Amino acid sequence: MKMAKIGAVGALMSGIALAGCATVEEAVVQKTAETYHATLAGAQVPGGGDPDGYATAQISVADRFDQVCYDINDIGNLSQITAMHVHRGAPGVEGPPVWTLTRANEGGWKGCTDKAEWMQDVFESRFRSFYVNIHTTEYPNGAILGQLGD
Predict the structure, then answer these.
(1) Edge-first strand listing for the sheet containing 34-41
(2) What is the 3-state secondary structure (H, E, C) of 54-117?
(3) pTM of the model
(4) Residue 76 burial (CB count, 10 A)
(5) pLDDT of 14 over the 60 cut
(6) What is the CATH number of the domain that holds 104?
(7) 2-18 and 24-32 are packed helices; what angle lies between their axes, rounded to 10 degrees?
(8) What total number of domains does the chain contain?
(9) Residue 107 domain boundaries
(10) Cα gap 61→125, rounded to integer Å
(11) Which of 30, 37, 48, 94 is the most exposed place for a label (fewest CB within 10 A)?
(12) pLDDT tens per residue, range 39-81
């Protein structure tokens, strides 16, 4: 009986620990990854973006698992989102999109994918030469942007 209770408590704690993650894969990557953050705002878009829009981004790279995960949160004051990308580009410099982020089945902007070849550059720059850009119907070239950093 005592072992059953210990097993039940262990299972419950594991479930609670994973509750914030959409998949076990995301949970593993988050626990074993280097994580980079960005605060997105319209003022950071070259040429100007949505003055009221905002969001936060988290990109986690797990080298051991060849995975990269993203979680875009606190999205606010934006017209309909039409696209979301990670772009290569230094602060203040527009660059090409290298990774399209997609909406999860649950409706949020989060997920994981296998690392692509462009990710090699990430390890050299530690994501400082990349930014997250959210495009909307009102700002099709970019509503808000945030440079990734530690």
Answers:
(1) 97-100, 81-88, 130-136, 144-147, 34-41, 54-62, 67-76, 109-114
(2) EEEEEEEEEHHHCEEEEEEEEEECCCCEEEEEEEECCCCCCCCEEEECCCCCCCCEEEEEECCC
(3) 0.77
(4) 9
(5) no
(6) 2.60.40
(7) 80
(8) 1
(9) 23-147
(10) 13
(11) 48
(12) 999 999 999 999 999 999 999 887 777 888 999 999 999 999 9
Which token pair is 79?
């017209």
The position carrying tokens 């988050």 is 30
Q: Where do we find the tokens 């988290």?
A: 58
**Gyration radius (Cα) of the chain, Å:** 17
CA distance 140 to 108: 20
* Closest to 27 in 3D by CA, of 13, 39, 9: 13
